[in-house]
């Protein structure tokens, strides 16, 4: 169950638990439940995101060899309604502030400490995550080149952050303001231990 | 969203690209084979959440060889680790993920081709995530040493991103408390540093227990756990009308009985 605000997830969750109790009561059964996972939303930091955008533009995108171009064209022909065209792997998308409808455990890191990230074109443009096409590209040079773009951009970002105290302070000030002064961390998955066997 | 929208500190001056950057970019270009080898090896391991034993060991070996000190098995997670180089602040952290997804299996080919006997695949590119982050950490470590810059670079090896919330346990144990800034990245079909937020989420397995009996011969003696799952799902599905617009609710029935003529005494919805 997901919502942009952790508070709202907790409120709706209480109602879901009540529905579970009601279902058990009405059918003469018993119920218990185990929280499996929970993530906070990613707390953006525009001070850091704009810095990362600048570094990514300095590094630039991914350039395919002829062989990689052939692979990409073959993959592209199998994609369902691709949003991007072939060739866009060379470009950097415009900077913007957006909401993605997924969730990630990076969210919990981002409310503990100012956090920033980027995406790189490791997959053929238009490829969806969790698809056979993303799996294929992740095991080939197209994916490795994308990882190199990330390595370069992260390196430039880290060096900037080591050298630029004013940037670190500005990022921290924005972080404090967005998180709120009365912030107290509470994991959405509660106090459960890591579910080490959840894939068994 | 109720968060205040802040004016960003756009006036901050960043360093201009120069010869030093060129040298670092050349260094990373020179490590292409290393990045590719790490990425390809973890891709072949394709280990799922909290079972990334070989992948985690490989990353720790690479980082130890590059001069990082390693703390393994942090936050009671055998495949989690923290690798550090340097001393004092500022402390910059780079995240690394390396779990594969179960139920997807594909060779590195341009047409659909499952690999025999494989049951998981790197469909989210976390093998690349790990290799790229290690590449950056090694380059930053070299720069710290060459320039004599004070500070610490860390890699956080964070298992089970896919539904296991590995990072939450690492955060909950306070292992990020002395970090100044955390950096991450993700495989994608595009290059973008857009500031992209995500949804908060919580999941659970609800387990109902009833009483079994013959579904035709003695149904009055039975209480169906599957009925309970259906009643529960019906209520939650009706609830969709009465929650905020941005809410997402999804489920699968993971147990619902085995034979129609046996009233199920156990059913589970996740």
List how many beta strands of chain B DSSP finds.
11
Give me the count of strands of chain A.
Answer: 4
Straight-line distance between termini of chain B? 28 Å
| Structural class category of chain A | mainly alpha
According to CATH, what is the topology of the largest domain in chain B?
Answer: Aminopeptidase
Count of DSSP helices of chain B? 7
Q: What low-confidence regions of chain A span 5 or more consecutive residues with pLDDT below 50? A: none
CATH architecture assignment of the largest domain in chain B: 3-Layer(aba) Sandwich
Fraction of residues in helix of chain B? 25-40%
Folded structure, characterized:
The complex is a heterodimer of chains A (200) and B (270). Chain A is mainly α. Chain A has a domain at 42-179. Helices cover 50% and strands 11% of the residues of chain A. Chain A has 7 helices and 4 strands. Chain A has helices spanning 6-27, 46-59, 66-76, 106-112, 132-138, 141-163, 165-179, and strands spanning 2-3, 30-39, 97-99, 115-121. The radius of gyration of chain A is 21 Å and the shape is flat. Chain A starts with a strand and ends in a 21-residue tail after the last helix. The model of chain A has no long low-confidence stretch (mean pLDDT 96). Chain B is an alpha+beta fold. Chain B folds into 2 domains: 21-183, Zn peptidases (Aminopeptidase, 3-Layer(aba) Sandwich), CATH 3.40.630.10; 206-269, Alpha-Beta Plaits (2-Layer Sandwich). Chain B has 7 helices and 11 strands. In chain B, strand 1 and strand 2 (81-87) form a beta hairpin. Chain B is elongated and about 85 Å long. The two termini of chain B are 28 Å apart.
